[in-house]
Design a protein that fits this description.
- The structure is a single chain.
- The protein is mostly helical.
- It has one domain.
- It is built from 24 helices and four strands.
- The strands form two sheets. A two-stranded antiparallel sheet has the order 1-2.
- Strand 3 and strand 4 form a beta hairpin.
- The longest helix is centred in the middle third of the chain and has 27 residues.
- The protein is globular and about 70 Å long.
- The two termini are about 35 Å apart.
Length: about 525
């Protein structure tokens, strides 16, 4: 690796110049899918149309409206699981008879967790309240809240709001329902707001391509999984953190990523791609500010629980260490089709799955090493979104757990990394459709459900689709002339201090050919001077 000056000696790069409304990438002209969809309303936008001058309907507002419609449909998709009926004792209860959550494919973790995490008890507090699971049985175990701190507190606050609502409803001032139904609706409202914020952040991050946020708004994965769990909170914080980075505010980016890591761990992984790119561009001081702020934010949120409720705080880490392979994981696919029980043999003996944890961790680290090499050796410095997508996709593919809603993590990153509409919608549709065989697999063959092999077949197709996206992204990294984002006349919309910065470190690798490298992207090559401003 070549030596380089420190950050203070890095070349001065002019401030980013935002593209004007007339320089936007118009999907009805550039995307065949968007062009075909526009035909019922007049076809692609005309050559002399006044772009960006409507008094109200901006691309962002259109995207948010579409997101509201998609979230409404998503809520109706889960509504079958919050229907009530009157039992033989005259009491109202949820109608989950005859496998309704699986037959209607409306299952949501939010509903059973209200009772399972003891949120229905107004006197409980996450990480302090303990209960005994499987009491009186050999597998009896003390349990606490099983989620990271901010996710646990989010559930607790919604439970408190539920208790307050039911008290007021008892006086007749508010409509009443089962507490779990009220809890689900309150939670869904905040999760919907989080996804709307994700759409907003993507639209603001995709400089010159605000219409790409429509893919986030109408993603089939949102229709299925917006309210399956609490993952829109983490996508919101990850997307806004990257937006802050693109605005050259590393401390704000670190704050948001630290909060995101306190919700789900995956926003923490985004620091890895930023490290490689900042190392290559000589921007380590900026990365250090973001990383230290991320670590400090996570510590401030978690430290009180680590000190005063340590056993409850460790529950999340204990369960993740001791749990076996998820039905959606590649390890389960291998075990099923080969008949090898090595990954779950330790669990059968009541031991933590050491082999599974080791293999999963080693494969992820190997993938990260490969991605780091790409980031440091590619002929043109990769865009931030490209490496971030590769890292999160590698984690999901190699992890022993791929809960279906985890696919939401990839949606904003995929749109920013690879905004090819037909390709992304095809992958999202495949990924969303995995939900149907999963539900009927859980229903059981005895109840006319699907055999496990059929479900795992769809898992393989989903994984192959994600791998295909990774291959296309790597190809665009090594052939930047094929990158449609850079083809719009920009370097890295999400780059912040990295945007149009000159390389000061680079591993030996294949040299880029000038005739195949876009003129605006050549600035990342060591022999080039800082790039010109946007047109």
């Amino acid at each position: 690796m070549s030596s380089s000056p420190d950050d203070e000696a890095s070349p001065t790069v002019p401030e980013t110049v935002s593209l004007t409304a007339d320089e936007r990438v118009l999907p009805t002209r550039s995307e065949p899918l968007a062009a075909a969809a526009s035909r019922p309303v007049g076809g692609p936008i005309g050559e002399h149309a006044a772009v960006g001058r409507h008094w109200f309907w901006s691309p962002l507002r259109v995207g948010l409206l579409l997101a509201v419609l998609a979230l409404t449909l998503s809520w109706f998709g889960k509504a079958a699981c919050i229907q009530q009926f009157i039992n033989d004792n005259g009491d109202a209860e949820l109608d989950w008879r005859s496998g309704r959550p699986y037959v209607a494919m409306c299952y949501s973790d939010i509903v059973p967790l209200y009772g399972a995490e003891r949120l229905n008890d107004p006197n409980t507090f996450p990480y302090a309240t303990q209960w005994i699971e499987n009491q009186g049985q050999p597998e009896e175990q003390a349990r606490y809240m099983e989620y990271p701190v901010l996710t646990g507190l989010f559930q607790w606050v919604n439970a408190k709001l539920t208790h307050a609502w039911t008290e007021v409803a008892a006086t007749g001032w508010l409509p009443g329902a089962l507490p779990v139904v009220i809890y689900f609706d309150i939670t869904a409202l905040f999760l919907a707001l989080a996804w709307l914020t994700t759409v907003w952040a993507v639209a603001r991050s995709a400089r010159g391509r605000p219409w790409d946020a429509v893919l986030v708004a109408i993603s089939p994965l949102v229709l299925v999984h917006a309210f399956t769990n609490f993952d829109t909170l983490s996508t919101m914080l990850a997307a806004t953190g990257l937006l802050a980075w693109s605005r050259r505010r590393p401390a704000v980016a670190g704050l948001l990523l630290g909060l995101g890591a306190a919700v789900k761990m995956y926003p923490l992984f985004l620091l890895g791609p930023l490290l490689m790119l900042c190392l290559r561009a000589g921007k380590m001081r900026t990365w250090t500010v973001a990383a230290v702020t991320t670590a400090g934010t996570w510590a401030v949120v978690n430290l009180p629980f680590m000190l005063y409720m340590r056993e409850g705080w460790e529950e999340f880490f204990r369960l993740n260490t001791e749990r076996g392979m998820d039905p959606d994981s590649l390890y389960n696919v291998v075990s099923y089709f080969t008949g090898w029980s090595g990954f779950d043999g330790e669990l059968i003996r009541g031991e933590a799955p050491t082999l599974l944890n080791t293999v999963s961790g080693a494969l992820f680290l190997a993938c990260c090493a490969g991605i780091a090499y790409i980031g440091l050796a590619a002929p043109v410095r990769p865009r931030v979104a490209q490496l971030c997508f590769l890292v999160v996709a590698a984690f999901l593919l190699t992890n022993k757990v791929w809960s279906p809603q985890y696919s939401l993590w990839l949606v904003p990153l995929a749109v920013l990394a690879l905004p090819r509409w037909r390709l992304l919608l095809g992958w999202m549709l495949i990924d969303a459709l995995v939900w149907a065989p999963r539900m009927f697999y859980y229903l059981g063959v005895d109840n006319r459900g699907l055999p496990e092999g059929w479900f795992l077949g769809t898992v393989v197709v989903r994984d192959l689709a994600v791998i295909a996206l990774c291959v296309v992204i790597v190809r665009e990294i090594y052939r930047p002339a094929t990158d449609i984002v850079r083809g719009a006349g920009v370097d890295d919309p999400l780059g912040g201090v990295l945007d149009r910065a000159r390389d000061v470190r680079k591993l030996p690798g294949r040299s880029a050919r000038a005739r195949k490298t876009p003129r605006h992207a050549r600035n990342a090559l060591p022999e080039q001077s800082p790039a010109h401003s946007n047109r």
